[in-house]
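Q: What structure does this chain adopt?
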Amino acid sequence: MGFNGIGGYINQPGEIPVEVVIAYFVFALAIAIALGKRNGGLKAFKTVDWVYIGIGAAAAYVWEFIIGAIIGRAVPSGLSNFISVGFLGRMFIVFVVVALVRKIGAGMITLFLFDFFSDLFHYGFSGEPMYFIYESLTYGLFVDLGIAITGGKVFGVGVTGSRSKTIALAAIEGGIIGLLWAIPDPIFYGAFFKPFLYGGVVNWSRIIYDLISFIPGDVVIGILGGLAANRVEKAVQV
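A:
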């Protein structure tokens, strides 16, 4: 293929078939839209929603590439695979943005803008649009699926009942979405996008190790992010 740094390598040893990845994207997106229509999470964005998304995407970039990068230097090298300060902070910020917007598309657009800022100020645009697709339709889509399934009441926001009920929902949903956020880097990037872009042999032992090591931190920060998102949304409404 050879376009904009995209090698277009398929059928590399161990690479997930491109048909499987495309089928996932189409199916997951269709599920999010269908559930959004049925449950009420599919609504038009207001100006304030775009403001939240823009500020959140910029904050996620600043945290992951500047603040988080500096703080991350204090993490012992043996723990760096378990504690990625920049990435975990990005997830925390995205959860707060999604709780403020609560409309399908908020996750995907926030991750698209985050990737745009990353390219603009850090990486450059080589490999695009593959990274836009990767960030938006994995991390972003997972959050949007949470909005769709809960009918726009993700992280317990807007749920009627006791305070303990909404806190429990925020923690559970945050933990589940956090668990899902452990998947894209090892599975989608390591076993498809990376070999598709650059070629090479997929090391599944490394991928499984990365997946297992990412899960604890992502779940813990997912729970904290869900709780914080619920709290921030309530504070903004006051």
